[in-house]
Amino acid sequence: MAPLAPSRSQPAAAPTAALWAGAIAQPATEFAATTLPVLEGQLPASLRGTLYRNGPARLERGGTRVSHWFDGDGAVLRVNFDGDSAVANYRYVRSAGFVEEEEADQGLYRGYGTLPPGPFWQHWQTQVKNAANTSVLALPDRLLALWEGGLPHRLDLETLETLGLDNLGGLKVSDTFTAHPKRHPRTGQIFSFGTIPGGNATLQIYRCSAAGVVEQTGTIPLSGIPLIHDFVLADRYLVFCVSPVRLSPLPALFGLSSFSDALQWQPQQGTQIIVVDADSLEAIALEAADPWFQWHFGHSYLDFDGSIVFDVARYNDFASNQFFKEVASGTASTVSDAQLWQYRIDPKTAKVLDQQCLVDRHCEFPIALGQDHGAATHMSVHPTAVTPPGELLSAIARFDPKTGLTVADPGDGRYPSEPIPVANPANPEQPWVITVVYDGNQHRSELWIYEGNELENGPICRLGLPEVVPHSFHGTWVDE
After folding, report:
1. What tens digit of pLDDT does each residue of 50-95 get?
2. Separation of alpha carbons 100 and 270, rounded Å
3. CA-wise closest residue to 116 among 255, 322, 253
4. Are 465 and 446 a contacting pair, CB within 8 Å?
5. What is the CATH number of the domain that holds 168?
6. Would you state the pLDDT for residue 372?
7. Is 44 helix (H, G, I), strand (E, B) or coil?
8. pLDDT tens digit string along 240-249?
9. Measured distance CA(312)–CA(304) in Å, rounded
């Protein structure tokens, strides 16, 4: 097993302004359906379908910036490919909070890491705004803009018009719905969860139909109020890794601090692994493990021997939250690195049977590019070889367990988003990979298409976007 790298989360020297900050310096500009010009290469004729991406696009209102990157108003990018051309549109999610603040031209709500204007004794009375800025879920009749602190927003699949909150046929207004639902590859069912706060929080798990209707709900009591962002789906099991981050409720409840600032790293608690049966939605095993924190999981599967295997972008601590807070200001000095780790656990006991570091360098947004049973080729967003403090992730990479790591560096001052794999019907062995790239040198955004197994050759097509699209978090692809 490769050793875990020493923690690198200590504050570094004050950073100079980085080029990535240009993408979020001003609120993003929406644009209507626009045919994208080909800047280099050629669009693949068999690339047909639609890309959706979501992320925080407005971090300032009335001259005041939000205090955390996670609090920016969400906006969704849609790019439709028909084999001959690519047509894109971009639109803010018009949540109730967005509309009210737009009319007032000032912040009115609390956020994950932002307190509203006014004296602190009034903060506890202020509602939290659903920023709808984290991910998207494409359903047959609608697109959901996801934000895990509340219900999704329903959007029109083509125009991106906001149609209101969506309760998926049964959720309450007070329920929450993760930004990382998982679709079962065999049944098409969608699994999701929400964390319901209280003295001790409750993990509420949902199984939905392929059309996005809640069919069953399960509940699991938790210790304290943890932060759970993502989970694992491995055939007939769900796995939750509850890292030792806990909310100090009173400061957050009474508005003395933001929710983000009230989250405490408590490594002595360790990480709790919970295995859930996908049919009953009941916990069947709980076990403590060494402390780590994760935002995102990667490839997962149920192995031949009955064990669950999953990959995770693993942090030594919770310092990444401070880094993301600093991003909102346009400069960041906290260094917090994640490595790609693989875990093998026993579903009957939740005990860790094996663990190993697959990629011992900073990476995030791990996604399976292609797989056979027991192995996967991963796509992720990586830094370049030497990333100074204050930089965002600035390259995409492919990790193949047989051949190792291949990094596609787009060049200095260019910042790719989470890579989205797309199956190639004309060549199933050679999927495409699509990423939105912000070029800080030119202050413009582009869409880059790679052949997934030949990242080192650079993009096969570069498309120009009509406006700058700020760094986004997550996206999805829908075949035509």
Report:
1. 999 999 999 999 999 999 999 999 999 999 999 999 999 999 999 9
2. 42
3. 255
4. yes
5. 2.130.10
6. 52
7. coil
8. 999 999 999 8
9. 21
Q: How far is CA 229 from the centre of its chain?
A: 8
Number of domains into which the chain is organized:
1
d(CA 462, CA 471): 17
Of residues 458, 445, 454, the one with CA closest to residue 424: 454
* Residue 7 covered by a domain: no
- In angstroms, the CA 79 to CA 89 distance is 7
Look at the block and give the residue holding tokens 């929400």.
194
pLDDT above 90 covers a percentage of the chain that reads 81
d(CA 11, CA 336): 9
Which H helix or E strand runs over 171?
Answer: none
Q: For residue 216, count other CB atoms closer than 10 A to its CB.
A: 13
* 5 — pLDDT class (breaks 50, 70, 90): very low
In the block, which residue shows the tokens 């997962």? 300
What's the chain's average pLDDT? 91
Q: Above 60 in pLDDT, residue 45? A: yes
pLDDT tens-digit series, residues 140-191:
999 999 999 999 999 999 999 999 999 999 999 999 999 999 999 999 999 9
**Residue whose tokens read 């760094």:** 471
Q: Which residues on neighbouring strands pair with residue 237, listed in sequence order?
A: 234, 277
9 occurs within a structural domain? no
**Which residues form the domain of 434?**
19-479
Query: 319 lies in a domain?
Result: yes
* CA dist list (Å): 53 to 145, 270, 438: 9, 34, 14
Quick check: 316 and 349 in contact, CB under 8 A?
no
Q: Which run of H or E residues covers position 445?
A: strand 444-451
Residue 12 within a domain: no
Task: Assign 277 to helix, strand or coil.
Answer: strand
CA 327 – CA 316 distance, rounded (Å) = 20
